[in-house]
Amino acid sequence: MRFQLLIFLTVMTLLASFLSFFHSDASIRAQEPISRTGSTNTDLGTVPTVEAIPVLPSEIVALPDTRDYGLDLDFFVQAVINGNPTQVVGVYIPETLALPIRQQPDNDNNFVSTEPEIITQFRAAQRFNTIGLLAHNYLAGQRFYDIQPNETVILIYGDGSLRYYQVSNIQKYQALSPNSPQSDFIDLSDPTTSRLTAGDVFNRIYTQGDRVVFQTCILNNGDPSWGRMFITATPLTIQPTSFLTPVQTSYGLQLF
Q: Where exactly are the structural domains of the chain?
């Protein structure tokens, strides 16, 4: 009888140990981070998706809605500033658009934000002192079609300072391989000329220095990527008097 009781107690002890181990292992696995696909994220060395790229606290701002601020410059400046005097954080065209600007992730010059009402700054253009502003034509890029020659373009920097430009020309190209960033192009202003490589168009648009370039795609024949539109603005040497009012920011009084 004692022998049978000893066997029973031994079995119960082993069973309790097994259940305790199983419960502990399940708890640990439940605390592990889960990827967007639902699988356990055990490979921490992989490159994160664009949505998961860390954002500095200074870059987190409440995104304005044009319906709320009515394209008011002072309000817009207050909404987008982050204290960084070297970072372009917004672009404003009176009575036309007011849009926040975000940066491309490292090593991805083809990234364009899929957030509505957001423009992406083209990193490769910065090497040539050009501010390239990218947006999909089904999102913020729709606003680019409202831009007219000679309009004033105002860039807002993170410290609240402003730079003024004027729209000087609009160029349109057909992309022969619409979905490829290496597509050849035809200049629609002179379609009889020979085709241009992507490098030719980049050099023509982005390497002239000290300018702002808005870029979006052209919809044609049902293809949203049929072509590319580039709107260039060059610096204003005399700032417009209608925008010379001081802008009070949380980083000090900026005089323009």
A: 53-242
